[in-house]
Design goal:
alpha+beta, 5-stranded antiparallel sheet
Length: 283
């Protein structure tokens, strides 16, 4: 493989942009309408798009004598769409600028109209050339309901985050100055954990420590007074005590997990009690 200014130079490559509509002005500029990101989201499947346009850029080294033959699009649940290309490709040009890599390139426009999407999956684009087929890229086809489920699975209940931030702020305000950094680091770690996993707001009880469930087996518990550590957290439900283990802890709280692999807790009935052994004051 050749190099240009110390970087590897691929002998043949292609990229693709997906959009609803594609037009080219007399000046050579392209107007793209409705450019897609990582996916095509439709209300339901099967679904028919009025049009799906592809803007493909192919690059290859000067030494290659290349003929672009066709563009093949793999459509989930449908026959491949193949569009033949004129020979030679009118838009193929050579880059001769000494400050640019020694390549030739061609810009290809493909319109699939209408575009029938039968199933979810990846829509993939390939360019067939005289020296083989090159992969240009893909886009994921899925439904809005599927996307909503994924977002819901990732999102954190804002109420839980506000609870943590408010509680941490109040605890930090009353903590000794020397513990301020530890409190801040603990708050950041817990919030990062809650952002990563789905969090559920727990029933608020002034007699209990503030706690947030990540799932039905793990939950963060804030110490009632971080400067009075260690606190012992005891969990129970209507059926009796729940055995837990400490997965992680910091100055602000601890992450507990049920030790019984088959056990889950009920948000409405679980209770957490915080107790401090004698002489637990952090000096």
């Amino acid at each position: 493989m050749k190099t240009f200014r110390g970087a590897l130079l691929p002998e043949l490559s292609a990229t693709v942009l997906f959009c609803d509509e594609l037009r080219q002005e007399a000046s050579g500029k392209f107007i793209l309408v409705g450019v897609y990101g990582p996916d095509i989201m439709v209300p339901d499947l099967p679904f028919t798009l009025a049009s799906l346009s592809l803007l493909i850029n192919v690059k290859w080294t000067h030494e290659r004598e290349l003929i672009l033959k066709s563009v093949r699009t793999e459509i989930p649940g449908h026959d491949d769409f193949i569009q033949a290309l004129p020979t030679p490709t009118p838009s193929a040009t050579a880059i001769s600028d000494v400050d640019e890599a020694p390549l030739q390139h061609a810009t290809l426009k493909v319109a699939i109209s209408p575009c029938r999407l039968n199933t979810k999956g990846r829509l993939r684009v390939y360019v067939n050339t005289s020296q083989g087929e090159v992969y240009a890229g893909s886009i994921l086809v899925r439904t809005a309901a599927e996307f909503a489920e994924e977002v819901n699975a990732r999102n954190v209940d804002i109420g839980s985050l506000l609870t943590v931030v408010s509680a941490a702020y109040n605890l930090g305000a009353n903590a000794p100055a020397k513990m301020a950094q530890e409190i801040a680091e603990g708050q950041a770690r817990i919030i990062a954990s809650l952002l990563k996993d789905k969090t559920t707001v727990q029933p608020q009880d002034p007699e209990q420590p503030i706690w947030m469930s990540i799932d039905r087996r793990r939950f963060w518990v804030l110490y009632t007074q971080p400067w009075h550590r260690p606190e012992i957290m005891t969990t129970s439900s209507m059926t009796g005590p729940l055995d837990t283990r400490v997965v992680e802890q910091n100055a602000l709280g601890c992450l507990l997990e049920l030790t019984d692999q088959d056990a889950i807790f009920d948000l409405m009935t679980m209770r957490i009690t915080a107790t401090r052994p004698p002489n637990a004051l952090v000096s």
